[in-house]
Amino acid sequence: MLAARASAARSASRIARNARKFATVVDSAGVKVAAADNGEPTTAVTFLVKAGSRYEPKPGVAHALKNYAFKSTDKRSFLGTVREAELYGGVLSSSLSREHLALTAEFLRGDEAFFVDVLSSFLTSAKFTRYELTETVGPVCEAESTAALHDPATHALELAHALAFRNGLGNSIFATPGHHVTAEDVKAFAQSVFGAGNVAVLGTGIEAGALEELLQKSLGKFSSSASPSSTPSSYFGGESRIGAHHGPQTVFVGFGTAGAPAPELAVLASHLDPTPSVKWSQGTSPIAASVPAGTSVRPVLLPYSDASLFGLLVQGQTTADVKTAAKAAVDALKTAGSLKGEELQKAVAKAKFSAASAFDVRDGLVSTVGPKILSGSPASITDAISALEKVDASAYSKAASSLLKSKPTFVAVGDIASLPYADELGL
Fold this sequence. Notes:
This protein has 14 helices and eleven strands.
C-alpha cells in the first residue's frame, strides 16, 4: 500500500512538472496560444478553429472549407505552397470534427516562420476560387464522403449523431455526394468563423513566446472578431436501420447527455472496454467473456462542449454473433452502475491512463487541450486527472443510471433483415 502511494505521488509530481511546461498566453490579435517545448526534434503548429459542421449554415460547407486548406491565397498559389512545403520537408494537413477545423503543419525546427505564415495566410487571405472547388475540393469531398458511407462503423456513428442530436451536433461532417455547395458559400462561412476569439493556436517543439511573436507578424490582417452561432444541444435518441452488403455487420447502441461532459462517463467506458492489459488476459470488462470469436465490442465516448454521446459499437462477420455480443453489451451496461470498491478503482485508473496518454502525442493534445483553450477552460493534464480522481461510487452510479434513463440511440448497418432490433436486446 505504501509503495502504491509513493508511486502515485511520484506520478502526480511528474504530471505537474510536465503541465508547467505547457504555457498559455493571448497575443495582441486575441488569438489564444498554447505551446510546449520539450526538446522534440521536430515542431508542429495547429490552428484550431471553431468551424465544425455544427456551425455550418448549409450542409457540406464545413467539409468543403476543410479541403480548401492550403489552396490559393494572396501570398501563394496552391502549387507554390505544395512545392515550398516539400522543399522544407514539411507536412501540411487538415481535419474536421463536429465542432472544430484543425489546420496543422509539421516541420523541422528552424522552419517555423514559413509554416506559421502558410497557416496564417489561409485564415487571412484565402481566395476560394471556383476552379479549385470544381477541380480539387469538390472531388476530394465526394471521395471522402463515399469512403465514409462504405465504412460501416463510420456510417453508423454518423447516423447515431443525427438521431441523437438532430441539428447542430447531428450535422454530418461529410458533404452529401451531389449536394451543391458554391465557392461563395464556403467564402461566406470562412468569413464568419475566421476571426479573433474563434481560433486557438497550439505548438509543440516551440516556445510560446516565439510562436506568439510569429503570429503577431503573420496575422496582421486578422483584426475582425468571429462568433459562430449554434443552438444549445438537446438529446433525442431513436432507431435507424441501413442495408449494406460490404464490411462487417454493425450495431451501435448508444445514449446521450446534454451539458458539459462528465468524467464518470470516461470511467464507464474504461470499465466496459474489453481490451485486455496483457494478451493472455481477458481483462476486467464484463463483456469480454461473452463476445464470440471474431466479433468486437468497442466503447465509444464522444464528448462535446455541451453534450456527450456514449455507446458500444459491435461488429462481426455474422448477424448471429453480433446479436449475441450486442445482448451481452447491453446487459453489461445495465449492471455497470453498481460498480464499486476495487473494480471501480481499476476503471478509474484505466481512465486516468487514457487521459494522460492523450497528452503524450500531438493528435491527443489537439483533441483534448485545444477545445479547452478555445473555450477558456482549464487545459492541463493535472485538471484532467484530478477530475477523474474525484469520481466516487455515488457519483459514478448516479451518472450511469441517469444515462440509461434516456431514450437509446440504436443503429444497425448490414443485413437488416437479420440484425437485431433495439427491443430484442432489452432496450
